[in-house]
Design the sequence.
């Protein structure tokens, strides 16, 4: 173990790895947040399309064109 510590600066390696891990986690989180926002917009568009379709079908069934 002593030879390893003399040959490599293990504390610096660990600290560097921790910083890399933190940066990767931060980048991943931001990416997920961006995709979540896009997903919510797409869901709202789908809901609106569905509502429009239901209104059109209701209108056709009742013979009242929009």
Sequence:
């Amino acid at each position: 173990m002593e030879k390893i510590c003399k040959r490599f600066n293990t504390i610096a390696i660990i600290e560097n790895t921790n910083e890399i891990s933190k940066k990767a986690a931060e980048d991943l989180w931001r990416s997920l947040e961006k995709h979540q926002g896009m997903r919510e917009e797409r869901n709202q568009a789908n809901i609106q399309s569905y509502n429009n379709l239901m209104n059109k079908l209701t209108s056709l069934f009742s013979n009242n064109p929009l």
Q: What stands out?
A: Residues 10-61 form the longest helix (52 residues). The mean pLDDT is 78.
